[in-house]
Amino acid sequence: MGYKFMSDEWFKKVKELTEEVNPEIPAATADMKVNITMTSDEGDKDLCMAGGKMEKGHMEGATVKIILPIDLAQKMFIDQDKTAGMQAFMSGKMKIEGDMSKMMAMQNIQPTESQNVLTEKIREITE
Question: Which residues contact 74 (CB under 8 A, 6 or more apart)?
Fold first, then answer.
């Protein structure tokens, strides 16, 4: 069964999968806190990433905020399309606020094997 990206059911299933896989997080991203706002015709959706894990809503103390269309977020975070993010940033479809150097450093960090497993499981349940 698939779940609509960013729906309450999707977040619940992602949390279950994250607890099941318990992915190893690269040291370089362990302290990274990012708030993400995804825009759509149905209204904005907020997500935060901390310690390599995704959670619903925003968090205090995030060093970076990303604002982008929800379809682009799905390409970047679920489909792992690295070029989509760069193209969107360069064309102004994605805005970044805060510590840009941390965002640039994140691009060069390779995910761990367990993170890849989790990403694949999330991709499988996402509509």
Answer: 5, 126
Global confidence as pTM: 0.86
Cβ-count burial 65-103 (b if 16+ within 10 Å, e if not): bbbbebebbbbbbbeeeeebbeebeeeeebebeeeeebb
Would residue 109 be called left, alpha or beta, if left means φ above 0 and alpha means ψ between -120 and 50 degrees? Answer: beta
Rounded mean pLDDT, 7-34: 90
| Ramachandran class of 54: left when φ > 0, alpha when ψ lies in -120 to 50, beta otherwise | beta
Domains along the sequence of the chain with CATH: 8-104 (3.30.1050.10)
